[in-house]
């Protein structure tokens, strides 16, 4: 099989493949790739068996990440929870990975990484790298049945509390919603002791993905207190980012927003909500997503060459880093995020 590379930002054949392929997601969309390029300078390209001028029947999209801190590598795809190779027969994956093996060795990449939903076989030459839980909610049952799967105390009771508190609700893609979302994101990242993503990342996602991006905002007496940021592709919605003001957690704003997301997605004909990946040791977030009625399965990333064994950072060091991030003024934290996130993809 002869393979070719194309630029998915300019070649409309990629849009056509993503629109019709059963394994495609919002992370394959040109808008996501365009936001990666505009925000972080990553160079996306697609590896395909289709010659120039012929319709695409397959494609593996990747981005090259060049960093003097973390090394040069190729990832499919940066900041995406998962990214399936768009090939019709997974037994052909080895032909694509062999091409990437050769490019990796010749150009001295640190590694290349795929983030598939399915497990590649041994012929791909890939080795497991990192694993997560991937959570999803099936919207096939009736709304009443879905509500019945929500945890009675942790989710249902908090939805009723939010309604009793008369939380109001805004949805859309306006600049106002983006500003309020990002303000809440800064509060949340500070609380977690993590640097915030640059605001330009969210602006570029909204500009590039258009109606496939949506912000949902919960408001108490005129003050926004929680927000969700979602992506859409055909009949699937991805919950990508969430944030809240911890002072109002007792009002149930996040369960309230997730229920609104479920109601609206169900009404729009959405078949599934992807609740995203979760670290295997993040018991709090795993429990919350479980109580939202989701099912979960292991999501594993794969690399070439085989990733070295890496020790876990000492607990005191992790706590120290989080503590330092939580103490930074927003202006400093945002500046640090703008500098460092492009090295982390």
Notes on the structure:
The protein has eleven helices and twelve strands. The protein has 345 residues and is of the alpha+beta class. The protein has two domains: 4-125, Gcn5-related N-acetyltransferase (GNAT) (Aminopeptidase); 135-301, 3-Layer(aba) Sandwich (Aminopeptidase). It has a twelve-stranded mixed beta sheet. Helix 2 (30-40) packs antiparallel against helix 7 (199-209). It is globular, with a radius of gyration of 21 Å. The protein starts with a strand and ends in a 5-residue tail after the last helix. The mean pLDDT is 93.
Task: Determine the N-to-C terminus distance.
Answer: 30 Å
CATH class of the largest domain: Alpha Beta
Helix content: 25-40%
Question: Please, how many domains?
Answer: 2
Strand elements, count = 12
Q: How do the helices and strands follow one another from N- to C-terminus? A: EHHEEEHEEHHEHHEEEHEHEHH
List low-pLDDT spans: none
Mean pLDDT: 93
Classified in CATH, the superfamily of the largest domain is: Gcn5-related N-acetyltransferase (GNAT)
CATH topology call of the largest domain: Aminopeptidase
User: What overall form do the CA principal axes indicate?
Assistant: globular
Binned strand content:
15-25%
* Strand adjacency order, main sheet: 1-2-3-4-5-12-6-11-10-9-8-7
The number of helical runs is: 11
Main pleated-sheet profile: 12 strands, mixed
